[in-house]
Design a protein that fits this description.
Elements lengths: L10 E3 L6 E3 L3 E3 L7 E5 H14 L1 H14 L1 H14 L1 H18 L1 H18 L1 H14 L1 H14 L1 H15 L19 E4 L8 E4 L1 H15 L14
Antiparallel strand pairs: 1-2, 3-4, 5-6
Helix pairs in contact: 1-2, 2-3, 4-5, 5-6, 7-8
The chain binds zinc ion (ZN) (3 copies).
């Protein structure tokens, strides 16, 4: 049923769903005599989605080809679309962020960690206060974490026990500043080699964490060893 007689109808019947809708509900189509598509926007959208879902790679490849052929045109039309559809654009951003998260959970964890670091650097007082409060309210959980840490890192835990005992009995002297940045603190004894438990370098908590982060990043191959240092170790 071509609407040849109606050159500029105000309404049209959709060929797919059969509903009669205002002409604005049909996308423009220069190939059609009336200048409008024969399917309503809703049906067109559903068709497109179905075709895309059936063969996403084909459509992605086509997009890539279009882009390669004329990147400027593509970018301009992308910008226009974003400006005209802010809601859809932010939803598509969220969707691709979700896909990234699923594809790369490790990267997600890393970016979460970095965001936490930035918050902490921006407001260290608030961070410390929140940590103190959390520790005070979660003693049992903390003990549980410590037990789990000891269980997962027996070598570190044992070496750290040896250091604590040596400090207590006066065999080792704990300095009152960090050997790396010099800040006054109760430094952690860090082991370069756990087989020499009394051979330690004294680091403030921050330098200690930094050292381990670098070291553990090198050896973290699905290992059970935790990247967070205990008070010594
Ligand atoms: Zn329709
Ligand atoms: Zn330090
Ligand atoms: Zn250490």
């Amino acid at each position: 049923m071509r609407a040849a007689a109606e050159e500029h109808p105000a309404v049209r019947e959709c060929r797919r769903c059969g509903e009669t809708k205002p002409i604005e509900e049909f996308t423009r189509d220069r190939k059609n005599q009336s200048g409008r598509n024969t399917l309503c926007k809703v049906c067109t959208r559903r068709d497109c989605n179905e075709q895309y879902a059936a063969n996403p790679d084909k459509y992605r490849a086509a997009k890539r080809r279009q882009y390669a052929a004329d990147p400027d045109k593509h970018n301009a039309s992308t910008l226009r679309w974003r400006a005209a559809n802010p809601e859809a654009y932010s939803e598509s951003c969220r969707a691709s962020e979700r896909r990234r998260r699923v594809a790369n959970p490790e990267g997600r964890r890393e970016s979460k960690r970095l965001a936490a670091c930035r918050r902490r650097a921006a407001n260290p007082e608030e961070h410390n206060e929140r940590n103190r409060a959390w520790r005070a309210n979660n003693k049992e959980k903390r003990n549980e974490t410590k037990r789990a840490y000891r269980h997962a890192n027996p070598t570190r835990a044992k070496a750290s026990d040896r250091v604590n005992y040596a400090v207590k009995t006066g065999k080792l002297l704990r300095p009152d500043n960090c050997s790396k940045c010099g800040v006054a603190c109760v430094p952690h004894g860090h082991h370069a080699d756990y087989s020499k438990p009394l051979d330690v370098v004294w680091f403030c908590p921050k330098c200690h964490t930094d050292v381990h982060r670098k070291k553990d990043a090198r050896v973290r191959v699905a290992s059970a060893e935790s990247p967070l240092p205990s008070a010594t170790g």
